[in-house]
UniProtKB/TrEMBL annotation:
<protein>
    <submittedName>
        <fullName>DUF1491 family protein</fullName>
    </submittedName>
</protein>
<dbReference type="Pfam" id="PF07372">
    <property type="entry name" value="DUF1491"/>
</dbReference>
<dbReference type="InterPro" id="IPR009964">
    <property type="entry name" value="DUF1491"/>
</dbReference>
Length: 109
């Protein structure tokens, strides 16, 4: 099975969010071909959660796992640490008071 490039996946994700009227933007652009992607969901009340795609060791599937949750500044610090380890990392920020990010929908894993 062919893998999507990171840039293609990000573009498709942003388009899906636009269709759901959920504002989102690229905070950090990573490697266009193979960069990993972090998604930060900002609930606009000082709180946020960051998700990172990981491989489930039991099934081999890619799943979105929580990287950090809580005060937005603490979540931003966790994302900054990840960017320090991986300069090719994409960071997408989603802004939604209800905390919608659509990562659980079909096609986004």
């Amino acid at each position: 099975m062919a893998r999507l490039t990171a840039e293609f996946w990000v573009g498709a994700y942003l388009a899906r969010l636009r269709l759901a009227d959920i504002p989102a933007f690229v905070v950090a652009r990573g490697d266009a071909t193979a960069g990993a992607v972090l998604v930060k969901c900002n609930t606009l009340d000082g709180q946020a959660v960051a998700f990172q795609r990981r491989t489930d060791l039991m099934t081999g599937d890619s799943v979105w796992m929580e990287l950090a949750r809580g005060d937005e500044a603490a979540v931003d610090a966790a994302i900054g640490r990840q960017r320090g380890f991986d300069p090719d990392l994409w960071v997408i920020e989603v802004e939604d008071r209800a905390g919608r990010h659509l990562l659980g929908e079909d096609g986004l894993a």
